[in-house]
Structures are given as structure tokens and as C-alpha cells.
Design brief:
There is one protein chain. By secondary structure, this protein is an alpha+beta fold. The strands form 3 sheets. Strands 8-7-6-9 form a 4-stranded antiparallel β-sheet. Strands 3-4-5 form a 3-stranded antiparallel β-sheet. A hairpin with a 6-residue loop joins strand 7 and strand 8. Helix 2 packs across helix 3. It is elongated and about 80 Å long. It starts with a helix and ends in a 6-residue tail after the last helix.
Length: about 190
């Protein structure tokens, strides 16, 4: 690897990693005929995004190519709330370039990938569950509020939801059963 790319490495938890943007710039400077392609592998409506990237250093018709895959879950972590597709694509390109040997210092993983991995670890679960999909809520590190990890899906479909603890749900079900029984028996409310 050229010295200038090694000098651009950043430290994450004591290990050196090269950003995907630096890997791409290096590839474009050193492989003028080369190209990078990406493909969405997962179904477009899926919340679990899988991207395949292929690097062709000699151009699309060249003999050699290098592949990298990445995945992201919509709503998992801060960036994936709005940019899961872009995040997965960047990581896939970084991995494919790493397979080619560009930006590899201590690992195929890029700085972007490591930041994503260390950033999503330890997400705090809220102990509340979504009324629409039953997913456990996640505490936003920015606001401290709980949100459903599938909120984008709910927003897209217009589905209303709330987050409640299992105890709250059970209590509401008991109240509804009691109210239904009182109604069937002709009891006056309150």
C-alpha cells in the first residue's frame, strides 16, 4: 500500500483503519480504467438491506474482480434510521476494495465499518414493545426517548403504533376483557 494511504488511517480502539472514501479515491487514481458496481441483493421492501459491490480494476470486461458484501437494518443505530442503504453500500465497496488489498492495514474492515460496528454495540433496549410489530423499543442516544426499530416501515405504511411494557399491555388486555364482560352483562360503566 502506498505510504499516503497508510498515513490517512485513523485509530479505532487501538487499531488502524482506512476510510472507504480514501480507498475509493486511491482506486480511482491508480486504476483509471477500473470501475465499481453495486447491487441491492435483498428485496427492495426488506428492512434488512444487503448490498454486493464488485471492483473491476481493469474495467468491466477485465479478467480480475473483487467482491464485497454488507448488510444494514433500517432503524438499527443512528445512521441507519435514514441512510441504511447508503451505509450498506459504502461498507460493501470498502470490503471489496479491501479484498483487492486497498486500505488493508490490520484488517479488511474499513474505518467506516468499524465505527458502525462499535457504534451499534450496546444499544439500550427500552423494555417496551411496539403495538404494531412487537419489536422491542430502542433508546435513542440523542433524545433519550424510546422508538421502534421498524418506525420507517410504520411511517411508510401509515400504521399507528405505541410502545408499551409487557405489564402495561397485559393490564390493558385485562381492562378490555373486564369492560367487555361488564357490557355483555349489561352493567353500567363506572
Amino acid at each position: 500500500m502506498k505510504k499516503e494511504l497508510k498515513d490517512k488511517a485513523i485509530d479505532i480502539k487501538g487499531r488502524k483503519y482506512v476510510l472507504v472514501s480514501d480507498r475509493v479515491l486511491h482506486f480511482n487514481e491508480t486504476h483509471k480504467e477500473g470501475c465499481i458496481t453495486t447491487q441491492l441483493i435483498s428485496p427492495p421492501e426488506s428492512e434488512h438491506i444487503i448490498i454486493k459491490a464488485v471492483i473491476y480494476p481493469e474495467g468491466i470486461n477485465g479478467r480480475r474482480y473483487f467482491t464485497g458484501y454488507s448488510q444494514a437494518i433500517i432503524g438499527d443505530g443512528y445512521i441507519n434510521k435514514t441512510s441504511a442503504l447508503e451505509n450498506a453500500e459504502t461498507s460493501a465497496v470498502g470490503r471489496a476494495l479491501g479484498m483487492m488489498g486497498i486500505g488493508v492495514l490490520e484488517s479488511i474492515a474499513s474505518a467506516d465499518e468499524m465505527a458502525k460496528a462499535t457504534g451499534s454495540q450496546g444499544q439500550k433496549k427500552s423494555g417496551t414493545f411496539c403495538s404494531a410489530c412487537d419489536a422491542e423499543g430502542i433508546i435513542s442516544p440523542k433524545t433519550g426517548n424510546a422508538y421502534c426499530p421498524n418506525f420507517l416501515k410504520h411511517k411508510k405504511t401509515g400504521e399507528k403504533y405505541s410502545l408499551k411494557s409487557r405489564e402495561e399491555v397485559k393490564k390493558m388486555e385485562e381492562i378490555q376483557k373486564r369492560s367487555q364482560k361488564d357490557y355483555e352483562e349489561g352493567k353500567e360503566p363506572f
